[in-house]
Amino acid sequence: MQTHVVLNDIHFPFHDRPVMDELVIPFVKELEPDGVHLNGDITDHFQLSSFDKNPLTKVSVKTEQVLLSKFLKNFRDVPYRLYKGGNHEDRWRRYLWSNAPALVESGVVDFETVFKLADHGFDYQPYGEKSWIGRLLLVHGSIVRKHSGMTAKGHFEKYGCSVMHGHTHRMGSYFHTNINGPHVCYENGHLSDVSKAEYVTDPDWQQGFSVIQVMEDGVFNVEQIKILEIGGRKQFIYGGERYRTVQRKQYP
Fold it and tell me: Is residue 134 a contact partner of residue 148, using CB atoms and an 8 Å limit?
């Protein structure tokens, strides 16, 4: 049996710093998984967005490079490392195609090259590509529906198999049985800081990630890790143990 961790929608530099530094990263190191799958929107690429942006938000590509490099170093002992691009990583490609098409052919300005993913041992898959964890299909996601679990249902309708995706910043699951047997699809939450999301107010989002156990024949079990805030501390429970951030009144 192997153990894999799936994280998505961190949105560096708009990440939830206490959650990442005090919960998620220490937990993954302690777990010592066989694989870490970064399932898109790990970086935000705020400055490359075609949407209206607050001119007072000072975020540079260099900031995202530094934060991502520091983050990826935490997984150097994990045997398998995958970085799957999301729609935010795809902002890099769209920006180049629109503003610097002459440089694209060189390959030296590709996202995975500039952010040095291979130097950290990560394979890279551009936005829209698929991978498998046993019999579970992993995609970043391209569908958004209103309620928790409904987007998971939409991805089952699209692919016809068990799926895990990010993108919606929600957690949820959808079960379906047909002539091919039982299927289950998962929305995998997010790890960003909601207070820094200037484009939305009081969103119906849930923080979390997943731990997946996979048998040799591909049969899998997913444990969704829900991150809650209780008494001013972010926390989750796994394996009968509670993991909590340091007590604080406000998150920086």
Answer: no
